[in-house]
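Structural prep section.
Before we set up the soaks we want a predicted structure of the protein with nicotinamide-adenine-dinucleotide in place, mainly to decide which crystallisation condition to try first. Input record follows.
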Amino acid sequence: ILSTTKNFIPGEPAPRGSKLNTKGWLQEAALRMLLNNLDKEVAENPAELVVYGGRGKAARSHSDFKNITKALQELESDESLLIQSGSPVARIKTWSHSPRVLIANSNLVGNWAHWEHFDDLEKKGLMMYGQMTAGSWIYIGSQGIVQGTYETFYEAFQQHYNGETKGKFVFSSGLGGMGGAQPLAAVLTGACFLGIEVDRSRAEMRLKSKYLDEIYDDIPAAMEALKSSLIEGKARSIALIGNAVDLLPKLLERADFKPSLVTDQTSSHDPTYGYVPQGYSMEQVIHERKANPKKVEQDALKSIGKHLKCLLELKSRGIPTFDYGNNIRAMAKKVGVENAFDIKGFVPEYIRPLFCKGKGPFRFIMLSGEAEDLKKADQALLNLFPNHKDIQRWLSVAPKRISIQGLPARILWLGYGDRLKAGLLLNQMVKTKEISCPVVIGRDHLDCGSVASPYRETESMADGSDAVADWALLNAFGNISSGASWVSFHHGGGVGMGYSLHAGMVIVADGTAEAAERLKRVLTFDPAMGIFRHADAGYDISQKIAEEHMSRAVEPDS
Ligand code: NAD
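Run finished without errors. Recording the tokens verbatim:
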């Protein structure tokens, strides 16, 4: 490490304010976002470089972390840093408008694309699991998924209960990095929430960040609290500590256990290092994952089978039950639950109509670290979209209920056309100094045109093209060509090895005219990819939008 470069420590907050630690704002943004992903207020386990989603990491090892932060500090404004599964491999001379960082995480050739091979490579220090936004440095804590979860619950309540949420509750398990958004999302719809979590410290983290209202250690106390809130018609979220496979059968025996919506967000995509099998304490599972990983995997799969059977029982009682993107159905099928796929995925059930319109999880982050800047941006966006009911509904509740985790950030689902308007507005606010520092704009990989994931984002596509991953690659290529600030391509996010391929992009609004030009290209192309993908698969709305607007997608208005 050169003496001129600064040493950063994973877990510590990212630098704030206008003083640069690097040679330009794009490099600075990448550095701050990497550090923000690992901020102890944001990441699930910064000491192990784990951000969220089982073992989703931001850097492969501590020495890789150190080398990445060093390379970003030294990187020129016409160079790009190459990251291979969390390790920096080269700095190459490119162009000032090329991405400053190009990231490839966890990609394996098809025949070898399974956990067993990945685990061997990981043990040899050759690979890292990047999840979606962990290895691509655009995670913003549980907030990143809270609006998607809210939109999903909202739509489910619309479809099944005409939008009535009072006196109703959502049941789920898993209150980790992403699953921890469920209690708040349910409460934001006006419903109550009951969730099982095996690791008390995870539930406590949600309590601290105000995503969760209460924690109980036994079923009678939890049910009593839930019932009084249901009777009062007060939206309240409750965690019940224990293993889902121990507690769910007991809940099923109770006459008062009648959820209105049922799902799951345990890390069942990764039976060895994510899901906690029945009969294991937390200490035991941590030890056994190292000592006997095969045994843990087999025990976890058996438990997942039992878990899914409980969900099928709830479905058979007529309760809307859906898979929430953790591959629990495929894992249960591996251990003989043949009808696991009777439960449908959340994308075909509730989210695809949004994807068809290019709508997805736009997010922005204040590099200043100032809450005041976020407040100004929220207000400006409310003013920008006065007639947009969904935006008004979300931005009127989110700032009040979502506490800041790490750098101030906002998730805001926006469609084709609106993402561009929002990006240009934020850039203008940086230019006029209304916002005091540049703003990072990005999105989840879970988006309309960036993923191939047959058990999640591309489940049951109209033309059967669920497993075609060309679209995700084209998304990455298009974002690189359009001038995004960093672009990533990952394998296995959300649903695990062998089940998904997906791309991420981030663009920095630094207030310059050049940034405005890049924003026009990137924020037009990126959501347009969702329209191309769904129009090609035969969805009418996307074909209509494509016919009316697509010339603008390739030739942005200047
Ligand atoms: P995480 O690993 O941070 O959290 C998982 C939680 O489940 C942990 O708190 C763990 O203690 C708990 N858990 C594990 N086994 C359990 C058991 N048997 N009983 C009760 N609790 C148990 O993961 P995350 O980031 O919260 O993601 C959860 C899952 O959702 C993952 O599979 C992830 O890939 C998927 N995911 C879904 C979406 C979406 O939009 N739906 C987005 C991102 C991730």
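Observations: The CA atoms of residues 99 and 485 lie 4 Å apart.
Flagged for discussion at group meeting.
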